Amino acid sequence: MKHIADFFALYKRQLLNNLWAILGASALGLIMVGIIGFFANDMTGFPVGTLMIMFASFFMIILYGSMLLQTKFDLLLSMGATRKKIVVEYAAYMLISVIMFFFAGIINVHVEDFVYTTLLHLPEDELNIYESIGKIAWGMGPVYLVESGIAVLVAGASLRWGRKVWWVFYALALLLCQVPNFINMKVEKSSRGVVYETLYRMITSNSAGEWLICAGVAVVLSVLAWLTLRKQRVTL
Q1: Residue 110 pLDDT
Q2: How far apart are CA 112 and CA 106, in angstroms?
Q3: Burial class (CB in 10 A: 0-12, 13-18, 19+), 22
Q4: How confident is the model at residue 16 (pLDDT cuts 50, 70, 90)?
Q5: Is the per-residue pLDDT at 135 higher than 80?
Q6: Rounded distance, CA 15 to CA 21, Å?
Q7: Could you report the per-residue pLDDT of 175-222, keeping only the tens digit for each?
Q8: Residue 112: which of 185, 197, 53 has the closest Cα?
Q9: From 14-18, 167-171, 232-236, the region with the lowest mean pLDDT
Q10: In contact, 153 and 90? CB cutoff 8 Å
Q11: pLDDT surpassing 60 at residue 126
Q12: 234 φ/ψ angles, rounded to the nearest 5 degrees
């Protein structure tokens, strides 16, 4: 029990920040739909809040999570904590973060469905998108696992080799963001639907194999991070 109490004493504020990010993303989605519907005079029940939660996971799990380890590692190490204890507690924090965002997306789909169907009485034909977004929310679990592994690796590498690691990560992130543009440029218009449908099926398959593969990727990235951190010296 003492270890659990110590963990929450160390990461309570960070877990609350995750919660505020989730609630903020959900509320922002509702506000955006309301504003767009008001000015366009055509209210539609698009689940923007759920998509915002998925988007927020990138910042809170990868960016915030990796910077968190950087700020805590040297401080905790100088206070006598072992590297193993620091990494294990940090891994537990990342796992809880993954669980929070995973269930937040699933729950928020139903919240938005309730708001738009029960409170606003939007017609059913405008809510067909909910089935697709709901499947994506269920399929995002493996994606969050990979995000956590990336966060640990980026944090470990930046502690070892400095800020230039962030420039490498930034360049790779920019390249990844260009994938939709690349598809639109290189794939013929008649075939784009097939490509996006394939990506959709990959995310929404939610198979045990997909979970195992993504969990394995997260573990491998975490092991690589540990190899960079196990002899890391205090740089305060």
Answers
A1: 86
A2: 10
A3: buried
A4: very high
A5: yes
A6: 10
A7: 777 776 666 666 666 555 666 677 777 777 777 878 888 889 888 988
A8: 53
A9: 232-236
A10: no
A11: no
A12: -70, 135
Pick the closest to residue 100 from 217, 204, 183, 21 (CA basis): 21
As a whole number of angstroms, the distance between CA 16 and CA 11 comes to 9
The values of phi and psi at residue 41, to 5°, are: 55, 35
Q: How far is CA 77 from its chain centroid?
A: 28
Question: What are all long-range contacts of 111-117, with beta carbons under 8 Å and residues at least 24 apart?
Answer: 111/26, 111/49, 112/26, 112/29, 112/30, 112/45, 112/47, 112/49, 112/50, 113/45, 113/47, 115/30, 115/45, 116/45, 117/45
Residue 44: left (phi > 0), alpha (psi -120 to 50), or beta?
A: beta
Is residue 144 scored above 70 in pLDDT?
A: yes
Residue indicated by tokens 């809510």: 127
Across the chain, what does the average pLDDT equal?
80
Distances from the Cα of 130 to the Cα of 112, 116, 117, 120, angstroms: 9, 11, 11, 15
List Cβ neighbours of 178 (8 Å cut-off, separation of 6 or more).
Answer: none
| pLDDT surpasses 70 at 60 | yes
User: In the predicted model, what is the mean pLDDT of residues 81-103?
Assistant: 87
| Token pair belonging to 195 | 């490509």
Enter the tokens of residue 24: 């903020």
- Residue reference for tokens 């029990």: 1
